[in-house]
Amino acid sequence: MAKSTPQKLVKLDGRTGEGGGQLVRIAVSLAALTGTPLLITNVRGNRLGKRNGGLKAQHVSATKWLAKITSAETNGCFVGSKTIEFKPNSLHPYTVDRDIEIDADSASSILLVLQAVLPVVLFANDTAAHPVRLSIKGGTNGSFSLSYEYLDQVLLPTLEIFGIYVERQLKVRGWSHGPLKLGHAEFKIHPIPFGQSLKVPNLPTERGSVKEIDISILVLETLQKPLEDALTKHIKQRFPEVKINIILRENTHRIYTLLVVHTYTGLRFGRDWLYDRKTKVRTPEDISAEMAEKVVEDLVSEFEKGGLIDEYLQDQLVIF
């Protein structure tokens, strides 16, 4: 690896903007990619209370891997740390292994680890243009983070317009809500060829009307039919003419659903919910009605904003 030319230390206040974990993930990823020394103070400073501040396990896992492949010096790289210093010593990570394994050490989101690692791996091509196999263990469905379904059905298909192609496979589903269960997902990433850059995305200039809506349902078997009926009812009230596709039914002890809108101009909008409320002494019909109303109305609210992508996709695309 080539040594980086000394650069000025970049200092960031972790309370900037939303003051959450995305600032950490993007900043450390870009620091690794560009060889820029970085200091972040007040890490996740706006995430106090129940969600706590400081680094989480997924930040630590991603940062340690990025430090390894750039021979970076780090300080404060531990769970709960309010300050993180990252000083990469290598500018171009061209010698990244073709087979990578990252363990998030908790039910922390696999997809948030991927968010930090993907930009670097994309520019880690070798002379033979081998793909990179990335295996991540952690959570696949959790509160306050992207689900595997959203990544699979919304984010990664959208990244293809940038020339980013990622094959994926869910090995084991992992949940953050309820009894802890770690998950496992594998990705095959095709780095950008030497001398090339990401494509300029050719997004449509108009959002277009709704063509169809895909539904993914991950619930107990006793809830599947009531939830499917409730979702169909609420969707038809809002979008009477659209085609509805049930693309995933999975029996699980949690309650999760994802809706994905497809427009006639080829855009996608997603909205999901990992149900986190009490279910005792409630009927499947009551739970389903509550779930359907919230997810559908959240999706309608997002769609009526008039944008070309949903707010969660905006957060994921900004680095590209």
From TrEMBL:
GO terms for cellular component: nucleus. Gene3D superfamilies: RNA 3'-terminal phosphate cyclase domain, RNA 3'-terminal phosphate cyclase, insert domain. GO terms for biological process: RNA processing. Pfam families: RTC (PF01137). Residues 17-320 form the RNA 3'-terminal phosphate cyclase domain. One of its GO terms (molecular function) is RNA-3'-phosphate cyclase activity. PANTHER family: RNA 3' TERMINAL PHOSPHATE CYCLASE, RNA 3'-TERMINAL PHOSPHATE CYCLASE. This is RNA 3'-terminal phosphate cyclase domain-containing protein.
